[in-house]
Amino acid sequence: AKLLDEAVEAFEQAKQVQPKNLDVLRGLVQVYTAKRDIERVIQAYRDLVAANPKDTYSMFVLANILARTGKRAEARALYEKVIEQRRGFVNGYIYLGLLLEEMGETAEALETYKRALLIEPRNPQLQRVFESMLERMTRGKGRQAFLKEYAKFASEYPYSTEIQRLYADQLAKANDTQAALRQYQRVLELDPENVDALVAAAGLLAKAGKYEEASQYYAKAIELAPERSEIYDGMATTFMQVKDRKQAIAVLQK
């Protein structure tokens, strides 16, 4: 504790000499963090961000601390700056969305998550956050209300293959096989080489007893992604359903 006090004194003296020296400001962040002096940590990060407005890492950390200490308006402004400077940084959108939810800004939170999904539609954390919010929004209204929100999202971005696929995945989860197949077909119209859509559609067709059509989808998927063993497994299972053991064995050997 005594050494930390001496370190604080030394850094503060250095700050008086060079108030925008980044090494000095980072040092203050470290010592105040070690002392667990939250208010001074916040001020040290504010000084650091003011001295270097492009330091999005420090800006993001400061926003997180402010959000956790109830300073939501300032945190929101910083998250928005982080996103402005690093549009591909998905965590910025996630944390901003969570903060907006806490602030009761549901519509803005939803739009924030959508913007993030356009950047990283396969991000599992982002998908969970988005789905959780939709579930809260549609609680007590039935599964169709939940799917309606996904349908709306898909209609807003009709040429985004990945957003269309997310909607198809939700229809498949809801066991709406025909609607899911139509939606996967929509994905394949936009991107005929979308392997995930081909495999998902093949699985649904096999489940519906349309084994010949399912095998065609699997064959196309294997042609595009010959290294993915789970596709061979699905195709072999389809051949087994129609008692074609020879074909199933051949596929499994591959």
H and E string: HHHHHHHHHHHHHHH
Structural class from helices and strands? mainly alpha
Question: Given the C-alpha coordinates, what overall shape results?
Answer: elongated
Rounded to an integer in angstroms, the radius of gyration calculated over CA atoms is 26 Å
Catalogue the unreliable spans.
none
Verbal overview:
It is elongated, with a radius of gyration of 26 Å. The chain is mainly α and 254 residues long. The mean pLDDT is 94. The longest helix is centred in the first third of the chain and has 16 residues, at 2-17. The chain has 15 helices and no strands. Helix 5 runs antiparallel to helix 6 (90-102), helix 7 (106-119) runs antiparallel to helix 8 (124-137) and helix 9 (143-156) packs antiparallel against helix 10. The N and C termini lie far apart (66 Å). It has helices at 2-17, 22-34, 38-51, 56-68, 72-85, 90-102, 106-119, 124-137, 143-156, 161-173, 177-190, 195-207, 211-224, 229-241, 245-253.
Set out the fold topology:
Blueprint: H1 2-17, H2 22-34, H3 38-51, H4 56-68, H5 72-85, H6 90-102, H7 106-119, H8 124-137, H9 143-156, H10 161-173, H11 177-190, H12 195-207, H13 211-224, H14 229-241, H15 245-253
Helix pairs in contact: 1-2, 2-3, 3-4, 4-5, 5-6, 6-7, 7-8, 9-10, 10-11, 11-12, 12-13, 13-14, 14-15
List the defining traits of the structure above.
about 250 residues; mainly alpha; 15 helices
